[in-house]
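User: quick one, sequence for these tokens?
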């Protein structure tokens, strides 16, 4: 049988950008393909998903995938990029790159923005499904999405944490502290089904998320303060020994 999924059509040019001359119908088809692909990839994962199923749900021809995205990987990359970008919305970027406030206040804003974003109801289950499949069976798309979307925020967050604990942003301890903060945040998404059983009052209401964000910030900053205190105690003795 002729396999449209493995044999990309070359008779149509790739077209991924929106221009004034671009027909509205093409943009509508592209949006439907992305919506359907998000559902299928979240349910089945990249490797088990088929272009035929995605095209069927979108009410489009299989050739439309090749036209708009080049191939299955191109479509998946765009779905993954949009999913991650929606989880790093403008408020997270603004909070992460804020420079006028003290570091502790910036960190609180970042934690709150990230928690509200990853716990947002819109496509929450789809984002979780995509990431679970990606973690179980990584694809080439993830490295590109990480470089484009996650790396700038991760670097800025490390720099912020490093400044508060007095260590370089590339120091292992700085990375561990950064990962601890992120881990506390994503826990409330990944463990949501379990938390719903263990903690019936956990509803992800905005006010509750604010309290959780405040706790994560207090918890993390308390450790940072202890780290600084220990470093200040050790430093004088170290200097005296050297003398």
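Assistant:
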């Amino acid at each position: 049988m002729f396999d449209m999924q493995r044999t990309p059509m070359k008779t149509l040019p790739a077209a991924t950008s929106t221009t004034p001359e671009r027909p509205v119908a093409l943009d509508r088809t592209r949006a439907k393909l992305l919506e359907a692909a998000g559902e299928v990839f979240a349910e089945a994962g990249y490797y088990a998903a088929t272009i035929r199923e995605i095209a069927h749900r979108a009410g489009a021809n299989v050739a439309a995938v090749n036209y708009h995205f080049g191939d299955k990987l191109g479509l998946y990359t765009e779905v993954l990029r949009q999913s991650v970008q929606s989880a790093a919305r403008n408020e997270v970027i603004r909070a992460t790159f804020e420079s006028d406030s003290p570091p502790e206040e910036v960190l609180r804003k970042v934690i709150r923005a990230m928690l509200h974003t990853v716990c947002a109801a819109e496509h929450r289950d789809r984002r979780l499904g995509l990431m679970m499949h990606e973690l179980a069976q990584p694809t080439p798309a993830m490295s590109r999405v990480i470089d484009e979307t996650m790396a700038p925020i991760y670097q800025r967050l490390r720099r912020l944490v490093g400044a508060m604990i007095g260590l370089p942003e590339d120091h292992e301890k700085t990375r561990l502290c950064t990962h601890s903060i992120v881990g506390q945040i994503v826990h409330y998404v990944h463990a949501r089904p379990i938390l719903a059983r263990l903690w019936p009052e956990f509803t992800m209401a905005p006010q509750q998320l604010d309290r959780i964000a405040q706790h994560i910030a207090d918890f993390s900053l308390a450790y940072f303060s202890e780290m600084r205190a220990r470093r200040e105690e050790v430093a004088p003795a170290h200097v005296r020994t050297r003398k």
